Amino acid sequence: MELRLRAPLDMHLHLRDGEMLRSVAPLSARDFAGGLIMPNLVPPVTTGEMVREYRASIEEAIGEEKFRPYMTLFFQEEYSYDFLKEVREEILAIKLYPAGITTNSEGGIADLSVERLAPVLEAMSALGIPLSVHGETDGFVMDREAQFIPIYEKLALRFPDLTIIMEHITTKEAVEALFRHENLYATITLHHLSITLDDLAGGLLRPHLFCKPIAKRPEDRTALRKMAFLGHEKVMFGSDSAPHPREKKEASHCAAGVFTAPVALPALAQLFEGAGVLENLQKFVSDNARRIYGITPPDKEVLLVKEKWRVPESYGGVVPMFAGEELEWRVESAL
Amino acid sequence: MELRLRAPLDMHLHLRDGEMLRSVAPLSARDFAGGLIMPNLVPPVTTGEMVREYRASIEEAIGEEKFRPYMTLFFQEEYSYDFLKEVREEILAIKLYPAGITTNSEGGIADLSVERLAPVLEAMSALGIPLSVHGETDGFVMDREAQFIPIYEKLALRFPDLTIIMEHITTKEAVEALFRHENLYATITLHHLSITLDDLAGGLLRPHLFCKPIAKRPEDRTALRKMAFLGHEKVMFGSDSAPHPREKKEASHCAAGVFTAPVALPALAQLFEGAGVLENLQKFVSDNARRIYGITPPDKEVLLVKEKWRVPESYGGVVPMFAGEELEWRVESAL
């Protein structure tokens, strides 16, 4: 049994920089035709020159692979219309982080009032630059995403022409919000389709499944699965694959992030096949993103075959999701 | 400033065995006049001989310290009235674990129907042996304790003369249940008075704060604090101090348990003083337990002084709660 995916896209991807970039970028480039590259480096990506340099590092890391890095800027209140117009061709989206909410988001936005954000958002809206958002408050960890929904809704109402991406949604509340606003869309990760808080902390605690936003309740996962399994046009795949070296995960203070890049397509195929909706995976991993972002990714076909393989315990010191476990599908080739 | 506690008791304590026992028992014996010793060894403590042997190991480990180990049996459906009558003088309570719910509970009870448990519980009731319960279902990790409440209530109604201890309660639902049944009591840990799920997983993930039952929501902690701070007669201190070597905590699969024995009294004094109820700590850490269990612990006075000290990073390879942090009170002497 085989599955051909046309131009699979990972619309939320952390490639890091330096040695880690060189280690993980080829794994995404092998399986995907493109990805939306998150800008939360240290320091964050905030200028055209930084975008160009980061893109060049990525291209160097992936070599000959057919993979397009769709670049992003780290949202700053200071961005002017002229600056954004100039940089428009270099980026696909701008990522907004509330301050301090996840890895390397210290320089994010502390005051999320619409009026503070309005000048930049008006410029983005006029220039057709989508807004990508890590939507969490600083409230209780299980409530943060649901508490952020009113902010999404205010932005969606105030800027009806702005495409707003609710990144890595984890709750039924977020799914419901998608239906109330034409200009709201969402990415969903592999791990939030796969696990709940039970997998992280219901048995032994499993730091390699620790991520932000934290995995939620079974009914939340059900709501996410419904959307993904339908290939619903409002949602697209974004892995949020976030590599940390093993010693930062198996530690007294463990960094947030699940490393899924090298297992994402096989694990998604297994999930979708298990739900009897393998035919909808194409929409979830590519077609919806093309339409939402209006992009034409490189012409690349990825062939998966139904053949068991054991996921390595580590890729260059980074422990992937499903490490040491068997997956039923594997990537055979990409052309 | 100083605080004198008369015969402080830790009514839920894991002392383990072997080398770990020798390492941690002196820390409890230094600060407390006695403790209820959990029986979940490998294999669990299920016979009079095992109780005597375990007690002897504990007494050897604590040497000359004035500390009474109140022993428990691991609940088994097979216990007969005659067996329990014979062992009555050796134990203070019998601990019931649902199968597989926490560390070394594989031999626990899979079928918790009242009729299955009735013969043993009737014998315990007749002999005046309290029942100590780890009250969690195998449901979603945040719901397990609340889901178990109906089982507590059935037991409380069916065996009105049986003293039932809801161990290490973590939810407002459990607090509410205490008020519905005369024969229900509870222990509360230091860590559940101190943290919520946010402390475990809201920032970086902190495996040394990972425990079962898992820390819950802020409103749950508030409900626990109200009871403890009042020195309410329904609740008593049980640390659930559960040492694991560092390498079992900072690992891909982290064991559940917070090691609080060496910091418990200072941290409790700090919490109670912060709430303006230092005078109620005596009830919480001793008087209530004496009355609920009808015990007369060794005559021991523990003197705490308000003097900052830094908690060690580790005690014999076990990382304590508040490792490396400053506490405001310290144990000066015990006589």
Written description of the protein model:
- Chain A is built from 12 helices and 12 strands.
- Chain A has helices at residues 18-31, 48-62, 81-87, 114-127, 144-158, 172-178, 190-194, 197-201, 218-230, 246-249, 264-274, 281-293; strands at 2-6, 9-13, 34-37, 68-70, 72-74, 93-96, 131-133, 164-166, 184-188, 235-237, 301-310, 326-334.
- In chain A, the strands form 3 sheets. A 6-stranded parallel β-sheet of chain A has the order 5-6-7-8-9-10. In chain A, strands 1-11-12 form a 3-stranded antiparallel β-sheet, with helices on one face. A 3-stranded parallel β-sheet of chain A has the order 2-3-4.
- In chain A, β2 (9-13), α1 (18-31) and β3 form a beta-alpha-beta unit.
- The mean pLDDT of chain A is 97.
- The A-B interface holds A 140-142, 196-198, 200-202, 204-208, 210, 214, 217-218, 249-256, 319, 323 and B 140-142, 196-198, 200-202, 204-208, 210, 214, 217-218, 249-256, 319, 323.
Q: Which structural class best describes the helix and strand composition of chain A?
A: alpha/beta
Kindly report the CATH topology of chain A.
TIM Barrel
Q: What's the total count of β strands of chain A?
A: 12
| Chain oligomer state | homodimer
Helix content of chain A: 25-40%
Gist of the model:
The structure is a homodimer of 335-residue chains. With 335 residues, chain A is an alpha/beta fold.
